[in-house]
Amino acid sequence: MLAFSLKSVAASAAIALASALPAGAVDLQFYFPVAVGGGAANTIQSLTDEYLAAHPDVKIDAIYSGSYQDTITKVITAARGGNAPQLSVALSVDMFTLIEEDMIVPFDDYLTSDEDKAWLAGFYPAFMENSQTGGKTWGIPFQRSTPVLYWNKQAFAEAGLDPETPPATWEEMVEMGQKLTKKDANGNVTQWGVRIPTSGFPYWLFQGLTTQNDVIVANNEGNKTNFDDPKVVEALQYLVDLSGKYGVMEPGIVEWGATPKAFFEGQTAMMWTTTGNLTNVRTNAPFDFGVAMLPAGKRRGAPTGGGNFYLFKGTSDAQMRAAVDFIQWITAPTQSAKWTMATGYVAPRPETWETDTMKAYAAEFPPVLVARDQLEFAVAELSTYENQRVTQIFNDALAAAITGQKDAATALKDAQAQAEAILKTYR
Amino acid sequence: MTGFDRHLQTFGALILAALWVLPLAYAIWTAIHPAAYEAHFVLNAPLTTDNFVKAWNAAPFARYFLNTFVLVTAILAAQFILCTLAAYAFARYRFPGRGFLFFLVLLQLLVMPDILIVENYRMIHSLGLVDTITAIGLPYAASGFGIFLIRQTFLTIPTELDDAARIEGAGPLTILWRVYVPLARPTYLAYGLVSVSHHWNNFLWPLIVTNSVETRPVTVGLSIFSTIDAGVEWSVINAATLMTSGPLLIGFLLFQRQFVQSFMRAGIK
């Protein structure tokens, strides 16, 4: 009797709840990480609010979820706990991990009309490389970046170089670097030629070098790496030689976080770092600076980086459709332009660059175009199954070669053997 | 010789103190000067409060402070009540399974809380508590460390005091409240400090289990400054760090003597 009355109370409560909501209301949770300063979280919140104002039948809860690392932890925990968000931004390289965990659904099921397919084709192909596998689209590019070369025009002029001409090739970077490296009376270096950060995640910038040497470090299926290819060894040797043989870069592991500061303070005349730093450099560099594509080896090249939108399993069809609609809206030119100008991320669709706002912005500050133009030569960021482990193996090998514990060939050969052991089960 | 020894010791202590205070001093330096002076230590560098203003405005810190305050207070209250009762039972009562149960409590000390995140989340979700302050605190309410610590202290209290109180007509709870708790005060103070500072600084679990400004603690606000893609703004980060750890630092300075004494008495090193 008691059980029965409890049940009926619960049932009537459920009916009351359901009737309180407007018909067809959709609730969405949306996790987003923040990896740049300048109020990026506020920008996402205000964009979401704008969308909600135009769509009263949808409710989106935009939830700031820390760094990329925190976000993937939060997303996976919530999904395992049966409470996955409907959509989340996470690193594009987490695609294989999320597929393996069986947590995400491909976008293809919800992009069926011709219009939708045309929309999907409207992203830069370089960004889609990390978003598609096995013929399906698992991620939609959103906060994406790519590394570029920043140079100090004042230091170039002082060294007798043309301040308007950055190095275009590996050889030029070494030659110019040698002219730019300054020593004091005691032989201590006061200004290095170039700075390629190698702390934390060295594989990312190193992928610039491998791409320029015309080699790809992992296949598109994410189950085979190519670490011991002679061309990868050659690229690593070049990186090691920059501080060894050529003496144009600080020896040892070079800190990522301290790199912009070192550039501002004249400790280095050139630096490689992400376009995400553009606004920071623009605000804080006390001298004239230029931004260029990374120098070419056998070809031009750079990896892409940053985060994609993912759709999570376990939610209704209506929610999925609402989520896709939101993603289509936020990556549309007007919104995308706002996002790019607020953060420095590369707008992922060519049409965004055709808007008047972006044209005006680019006219006023041409360096924003460099990253976009470089996309033509860009490749996918290293991403495999068991991505964390495989990337860690690669990072360790790079660190071993940079610190001189192993020579480049041995370090990479060992890394390839370890990666093989992990990845061969995925073929 | 002894004089020399003493000087050597003082000198060593000074060096250690300097090493310890260096990061804090650097944090203060960068926080009160413009970003250009992060690595230029000149005495006439202009002072500024801009960094604090910038940090304060980067996230709703007022609300976060309130949440953290509610959180640490609630956890501490729950821990004191649960741990005291459990410790009293383990210290003074004989019941079947006592040894095994105490073993389970000790086992909790060996398990890293981080590996339980998924299980805890599932539990919190099934209780319908996701995105509440209760959810952040609940997994920590029954603290193995607290039970162990307070039990050890209770064991050192002579049973003669028990007997005396019982002759006066006191029941078990009165004895606990009038005899045991007052005598264990230094332990409570020491444990309270450890608990408050731990939960004040806890980040990952609160981030995962909460979603809204109304429930998140200051550490989540602080994380908004870890912007690796855009280079690190030390001056603002340090201002934010000082701001969020400020209440703890001030509390420690005010109660420093009591804290140090209670640590010595409670035997926690």
Automatic annotation (TrEMBL), chain A:
<feature type="signal peptide">
    <location>
        <begin position="1"/>
        <end position="25"/>
    </location>
</feature>
<dbReference type="InterPro" id="IPR050490">
    <property type="entry name" value="Bact_solute-bd_prot1"/>
</dbReference>
<protein>
    <submittedName>
        <fullName>Carbohydrate ABC transporter substrate-binding protein, CUT1 family</fullName>
    </submittedName>
</protein>
<dbReference type="Pfam" id="PF13416">
    <property type="entry name" value="SBP_bac_8"/>
</dbReference>
<comment type="similarity">
    <text>Belongs to the bacterial solute-binding protein 1 family.</text>
</comment>
<dbReference type="InterPro" id="IPR006059">
    <property type="entry name" value="SBP"/>
</dbReference>
<dbReference type="GO" id="GO:0042597">
    <property type="term" value="C:periplasmic space"/>
</dbReference>
<keyword id="KW-0732">Signal</keyword>
Automatic annotation (TrEMBL), chain B:
<comment type="similarity">
    <text>Belongs to the binding-protein-dependent transport system permease family.</text>
</comment>
<dbReference type="Pfam" id="PF00528">
    <property type="entry name" value="BPD_transp_1"/>
</dbReference>
<dbReference type="InterPro" id="IPR000515">
    <property type="entry name" value="MetI-like"/>
</dbReference>
<dbReference type="InterPro" id="IPR035906">
    <property type="entry name" value="MetI-like_sf"/>
</dbReference>
<feature type="domain" description="ABC transmembrane type-1">
    <location>
        <begin position="65"/>
        <end position="255"/>
    </location>
</feature>
<dbReference type="GO" id="GO:0005886">
    <property type="term" value="C:plasma membrane"/>
</dbReference>
<keyword id="KW-0813">Transport</keyword>
<feature type="transmembrane region" description="Helical">
    <location>
        <begin position="124"/>
        <end position="150"/>
    </location>
</feature>
<dbReference type="GO" id="GO:0055085">
    <property type="term" value="P:transmembrane transport"/>
</dbReference>
<keyword id="KW-0812">Transmembrane</keyword>
<keyword id="KW-0472">Membrane</keyword>
<feature type="transmembrane region" description="Helical">
    <location>
        <begin position="100"/>
        <end position="118"/>
    </location>
</feature>
<feature type="transmembrane region" description="Helical">
    <location>
        <begin position="236"/>
        <end position="255"/>
    </location>
</feature>
<keyword id="KW-1133">Transmembrane helix</keyword>
<protein>
    <submittedName>
        <fullName>Carbohydrate ABC transporter membrane protein 2, CUT1 family (TC 3.A.1.1.-)</fullName>
    </submittedName>
</protein>
<feature type="transmembrane region" description="Helical">
    <location>
        <begin position="64"/>
        <end position="88"/>
    </location>
</feature>
<keyword id="KW-1003">Cell membrane</keyword>
